[in-house]
């Protein structure tokens, strides 16, 4: 079967930066140590890749300097050697529909490294980070993660973070957030938010997946649901194949969320893969699979247009947002 080359892709989550930070010898262009490379993005027609800044516990206590290190990796290896353009502003998402070369956008997976300091959050914004995942799996200074047994909501400082994000235009991401925090954010946030890499708990019972009530709330708020390719989030017991993604797609659509569905692979954050979705170069074959079952307009939306439309509406404008270095 010929690969589908006409459908663009936006992927809202990968962890390549943490690997690039851990091993400076890795070449982003085509290194086999990475799932996400410049060559594979081109092969899969991925025109937007969101790069998460993930601070592994292996490095010890999360520090702001480690966030800065991964931002530097993005500039040197991804935007530099890899040739990707940098997406920061609404105007950049509006101008040309993100034509080649591909764009990269920065997100933060867990705010631990901000060390409870909102000035560090502001500095991340100035340095081009555009989305904050509030927690990883456990508690931090802002809120509880989904694996924290007490299932707490936001701290007082975490509520201040929400207010700051709403004012600044920083996007918020609830993947990994405890359910109590999800519902609190729904009440406190004046803007839509996303789940960058989460699946449907009704289809696969992993605790990182979202309940139907959470999915419905995201749909009503016109947020985005990034279905992920983590095998144990796709199918109970693992051993998932790319055809298994259809169950999650159809479940979200059955709840009325076709217009809010997108993808967040979690490539480079996993050590086993959905069969047939081992790297972004295989998005083309995935598109062909989806086109067998669904109208092309729907598939275009899920792969690209829903994500891009959200960014066009929700990214901050460059007007009035001059860098603090220019003020």
TrEMBL record:
Domain of life: Bacteria
InterPro entries: Metal_Hydrolase, Pept_M19
Pfam families in alphabetical order: Peptidase_M19 (PF01244)
PROSITE patterns: RENAL_DIPEPTIDASE_2
Protein name according to UniProt: Dipeptidase
């Amino acid at each position: 079967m010929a690969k589908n080359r006409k459908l663009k892709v936006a992927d809202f989550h990968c962890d390549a930066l943490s690997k690039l930070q851990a091993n400076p010898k890795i070449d982003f262009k085509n290194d086999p140590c990475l799932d996400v490379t410049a060559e594979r993005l081109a092969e899969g027609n991925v025109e937007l890749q969101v790069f998460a800044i993930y601070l592994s516990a292996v490095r010890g206590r999360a520090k702001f300097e480690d966030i800065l290190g991964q931002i530097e990796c993005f500039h040197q290896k991804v935007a530099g050697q890899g040739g990707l353009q940098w997406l920061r502003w609404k105007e950049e998402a509006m101008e040309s529909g993100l034509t080649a070369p591909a764009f990269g956008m920065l997100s933060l997976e867990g705010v631990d490294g901000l060390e409870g300091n909102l000035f560090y959050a502001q500095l991340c914004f100035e340095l081009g980070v555009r989305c904050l995942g509030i927690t990883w799996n456990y508690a931090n200074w802002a809120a509880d993660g989904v694996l924290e047994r007490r299932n707490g909501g936001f701290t007082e400082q975490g509520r201040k973070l929400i207010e700051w994000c709403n004012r600044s235009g920083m996007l918020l991401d609830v993947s990994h957030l405890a359910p109590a925090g999800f519902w609190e954010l729904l009440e406190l946030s004046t803007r839509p938010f996303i789940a960058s890499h989460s699946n449907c708990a009704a289809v696969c019972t992993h605790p990182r997946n979202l309940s139907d009530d959470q999915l419905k709330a995201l749909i009503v708020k016109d947020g985005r649901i990034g279905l992920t390719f983590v095998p144990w989030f796709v199918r109970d017991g693992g051993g998932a194949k790319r055809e298994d993604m259809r169950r999650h797609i159809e479940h979200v659509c059955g709840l009325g969320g076709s217009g809010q569905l997108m993808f967040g692979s979690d490539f480079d954050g996993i050590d086993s893969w959905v069969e047939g979705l081992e790297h972004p170069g295989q998005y083309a074959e995935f598109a062909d699979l989806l086109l067998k079952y669904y109208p092309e307009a729907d598939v275009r939306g899920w792969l690209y247009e829903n994500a891009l439309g959200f960014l066009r509406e929700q990214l901050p404008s460059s007007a009035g947002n001059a860098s603090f270095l220019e003020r």
